[in-house]
Write a structure and sequence with these properties.
This protein is of the alpha/beta class and about 525 residues long. The chain is built from 20 helices and 14 strands. Strands 3-2-1-4-5-7-6 form a seven-stranded mixed β-sheet. Strands 9-10-14-13 form a four-stranded antiparallel β-sheet. Strands 11-8-12 form a three-stranded antiparallel β-sheet. The longest helix has 20 residues.
Length: about 525
């Protein structure tokens, strides 16, 4: 029998994690920001439910949460690791979730299975860590199983951000291969120790790449499960966005939007000169690639569409105005600092505090916010921009409407009860277990921005003051500390496959508070 792992690490289980960019409500927001039609996320009610597939679901936590929060949807999720699938099935069964099915399938087996056509196909932290053969199977699946108008969420490692760290990953692999008789964790420890000795010996690589020492320090703090899956797989591929776009075009897919809300606010990502230069690039795939160079991107989360339809400006404004948002942290914990590629950002209290006050009462649509004092005077664009920044920093999120929330509540309550009972087992993965802290955020509150050198943003900038707007290294857009890339940007802390801090943030989101926060069930708030 051939090796069922196909070169993928199976000796250590994949770290548990929840990836909120895959949630339909956040996908919808990101699509609307680019005037992309998001109707696929509604299915075709009442006769046809939303059908959602996840390829490479790991422990299945994200898929299970989507199933609980969208009880009318059909969720199909597959992973090749039997331990992952067994655990995922147990969790879903304990929560009595009837609308999700897990498969222990390879991509080839899943393609051949008797499955429906899907509205959404999602793969998080998969595409860069598999062979070309398996990537081709994924494209075949998208070609055959994604409906016209359907959406694909995909994440992957990109250049140029990964370029300085490529040699270190190569050395990790080669040093590990030389100690194959040892367990994976011991091989990782040996490689890290040797590379650390190289740094102390003042190796030229570290002299020429100052970031490498910081990355190495962060790697030493990560769980070995994370490091195994990030660095030690046989296949490990870095892409430019334009190359991924060309590959997915073979499955009839077109790039629709970034799946990261902060990417839609240019002022916190690009200088004025960079914005002007980027606007001169007409080809969409090349423009996204140039943007990656501007921000030194290392990890992308994208949404592609099979038959991309664009909304009119009026349709976009109407859809966004009707979108409800919920505060996802206690009002008293609102952070008015955030890190972005342009530098550390101070969020102006006279803009963000009134928005937070309004959302602390109950979830509200942008239209409702515009009708209330003192927000009425701010205007649509400033409120929208503030909501995007709060969403990007994990302090707000798009919310379900009241009817959908009521329907989902019993399903979420059951899942929450199971997660609460499993807390002792899951807490070992937590970075922050305190209510109100963002899932996966290392240490909870953002580090303070220094006032020295702060500059006020231009008129209409949404209430930003930029501190250190010309930093040499881009800050992590979501304020995470460096953890050795974890499939994110240099100096970021995203976890393997871009997971929210790949140090096993997982169960950090597996508390009652986390489930509400991640999928915006603020109306289900615990008393």
């Amino acid at each position: 029998m051939s090796d069922w792992t196909s070169g993928y690490v199976a000796e250590l289980e994949y770290a548990q994690g929840v990836y909120r960019e895959m949630a339909p409500s956040l996908m919808r927001l990101n699509l609307l920001m680019q005037r992309a039609d998001a109707s696929a996320l509604s299915g075709q009610p009442p006769s046809t439910p939303l059908r959602y597939a996840e390829l490479g679901c790991g422990h299945g936590l994200t898929a299970t949460m989507i199933a609980a929060s969208h009880p009318g949807a059909e969720i199909h999720a597959t992973d090749f690791n039997p331990a992952h699938v067994a655990g995922a099935r147990k969790l879903a069964a304990q929560a009595n979730l009837k609308n999700i099915q897990f498969y222990e399938h390879s991509f080839a087996e899943f393609l051949a299975a008797d499955l429906p056509m899907f509205d959404v196909v999602a793969l998080h932290g998969v595409y860069s860590w598999i062979s070309e053969e398996n990537r081709a199977l994924i494209r075949d699946f998208l070609y055959a199983k994604l409906k016209p108008g359907g959406l694909c969420y995909i994440s992957y490692n990109v250049l140029p951000g990964w370029a300085p760290a490529m040699p270190m990953r190569k050395l990790m692999i080669e040093l590990g291969e030389g100690n194959k008789a040892q367990p994976m964790a011991a091989r990782i420890n040996g490689a890290l120790d040797f590379i650390g000795q190289m740094q102390k010996a003042n190796a030229g690589y570290f002299k020429a790449n100052p970031q490498a020492a910081t990355r190495l320090e962060g790697m030493a703090k990560h769980s070995r499960n994370y490091l195994a899956h990030e660095y030690m797989n046989r296949d490990w591929n870095l892409f430019y966005h334009c190359d991924v776009a060309r590959e997915l075009a073979g499955a009839k897919l077109t790039f629709a939007a970034s799946a990261h809300a902060g990417d839609h606010v240019d002022i916190v990502n690009l200088t004025v000169d960079q914005q002007q230069l980027l606007a001169s690039v007409t080809d969409p795939a090349v423009r996204e690639t140039v943007r990656d160079f501007m921000v030194n991107q290392q990890f992308r989360r994208d949404i592609f569409a099979k038959g991309l339809l664009r909304l009119s400006g009026q349709e976009q404004v109407q859809a966004l105005a009707n979108t409800r948002f919920a505060l996802t942290v206690p009002r008293s914990s609102l952070a008015l600092k955030a890190g972005f590629p342009v530098g550390e950002v101070n969020l102006q209290a006279d803009v963000y505090e009134p928005v937070a006050d309004a959302l602390a009462e109950k979830p509200k649509s942008i239209a409702e916010l515009l009708a209330a004092e003192p927000l009425k005077a701010m205007g649509y664009q400033k409120i929208l921009q503030a909501l995007l920044i709060l969403t990007s920093s994990g302090q707000a999120a798009p919310a379900l409407d009241d009817k959908a929330a009521r329907e989902a509540k019993p399903h979420c309550d059951r899942l929450n009860a199971v997660l609460d009972r499993a807390g002792a087992h899951l807490r070992r993965h937590r970075l922050s277990g305190q209510p109100g802290h963002r899932l996966g955020r290392a240490g909870g509150p953002l580090q303070p921005a220094h006032a020295a050198g702060a500059q006020t943003g231009p008129e209409g900038s949404g209430g930003f003051r930029l501190a250190y707007p010309h930093r040499a290294e881009p800050a992590h857009p979501e304020g995470w500390q460096d953890a050795g890339n974890a499939r994110g940007k240099p100096g970021r802390t995203e976890g393997p496959r871009g997971r929210l801090h790949r140090q096993d943030p997982a169960a950090a989101g597996l508390s009652r508070h986390r489930l509400r926060k991640l999928f915006s069930f603020i109306s289900l708030r615990r008393s």
